[in-house]
Design goal:
mainly alpha, 79% helix, 335 residues
């Protein structure tokens, strides 16, 4: 493509579209039809320039022009409570359900790895000695030690808020950094698994694994599930970069990225629930069986939410992506 010739041929159409957009509501019926036609043609011009003769300045100009025209043609759309309800009852659970082939294996492998590393630490005193000095280990694992007092060391509300913030950040990092060929997600996941394994190993070596699980399970079931969902989604996003399938790499990454951003909002709500449990239930005076029951109920409620509402929405075609009017139109690469 000769860019100078192309610009010389079509610049009058772009100027005319810009003029009509500035006219706003004063357009006649014929001018509205003209605006729609110019918008479609300019969108095609933008696609051609991006694929055949990328020019940064011209691309920015036409991108802004197409965006303004699209907003005018489709009308400005504001988010409403109905959109939030649709997201919570269909979009988010559908996205989690559709990514289950990523996060379920992630959860299974991570849990097995935590169990194996925990057994290895618990069965080998020399490994424990490399973690901390014997007196420090006793301070961690003894009755009333740091593993137990950790959950009651701060006021419940502030502790729940801190836990929620930290976990939401970890989940968001898994979702965002997945685009970097999955490597950061694997590292974040491994650090979480290792922390869990150290607790399992040290407390089991002290003969207090039941106490440790009684403290971790009430909030940990839901919390770890959310982390596994985030990690699985991040891995799926990274795989879209490696193998986009029949779509272009940019299109695949955009679709998975939009779903991942929606997932971040939904998982923040899930982690809020787990943070409340960790702040108020885990350190409470309730018997261990009652605290674990609350955690199991929360976990089963989330899985039912994903498999019932999410499965139904996914079978109806919901992908967790933005609605068609809320995302950029995918333009042809050539015409």
């Amino acid at each position: 493509m000769d860019l100078d010739v192309f610009v010389s041929t079509h610049h009058t159409e772009w100027d005319r579209l810009d003029h009509l957009l500035h006219r706003g509501r004063s357009l006649t019926g014929e001018e509205v039809d003209e605006l729609v036609d110019l918008y479609q043609r300019t969108a095609t011009h933008l696609s051609l320039i991006q694929s055949d003769a990328p020019d940064p300045l011209l691309t920015v100009r036409l991108t802004q022009l197409v965006a303004r025209a699209r907003s005018t043609v489709t009308g400005a759309r504001r988010a409403s409570w109905r959109d939030a309800a649709r997201f919570l009852t269909a979009g988010f659970p559908a996205a989690v359900y559709r990514s289950r082939h990523w996060w379920i294996p992630t959860a299974v492998l991570s849990t097995l790895l935590a169990a194996v590393i925990g057994w290895w630490i618990g069965a080998h005193p020399e490994v424990q000695a490399s973690i901390a000095a014997p007196e420090d280990l006793r301070a961690l694992t003894r009755p009333g030690g740091e593993y137990e007092t950790y959950y009651s060391s701060h006021p419940a509300a502030s502790f729940a808020a801190q836990v929620w913030t930290n976990n939401a950040q970890a989940a968001a990092m898994c979702l965002v950094l997945g685009a970097f060929l999955c490597i950061p997600v694997i590292w974040i996941l491994f650090i979480n698994v290792l922390n869990l394994a150290v607790g399992i190993g040290l407390m089991s070596s002290a003969g207090r694994l039941d106490t440790f699980l009684g403290l971790v399970l009430p909030h940990g079931l839901l919390e770890l599930t959310a982390v596994f969902v985030a990690a699985g989604t991040g891995l799926r996003l990274g795989w879209a970069v490696i193998d986009p399938g029949p779509r272009t790499r940019r299109s695949a990454l955009a679709q998975q990225g939009r779903a991942a951003m929606g997932m971040a909002i939904g998982l923040a709500l899930v982690l809020f629930v787990s943070g409340v449990i960790e702040g108020f239930v885990t350190p409470s005076s309730l018997p261990t069986w009652a605290r674990i029951t609350i955690g199991v109920v929360a976990e089963l409620a989330f899985l039912s939410y994903v498999y019932v509402l999410g499965g139904r929405a996914a079978r109806a075609g919901n992908t967790g992506d933005l609605e068609a009017e809320g995302r950029s139109a995918e333009l042809p690469a050539a015409a």
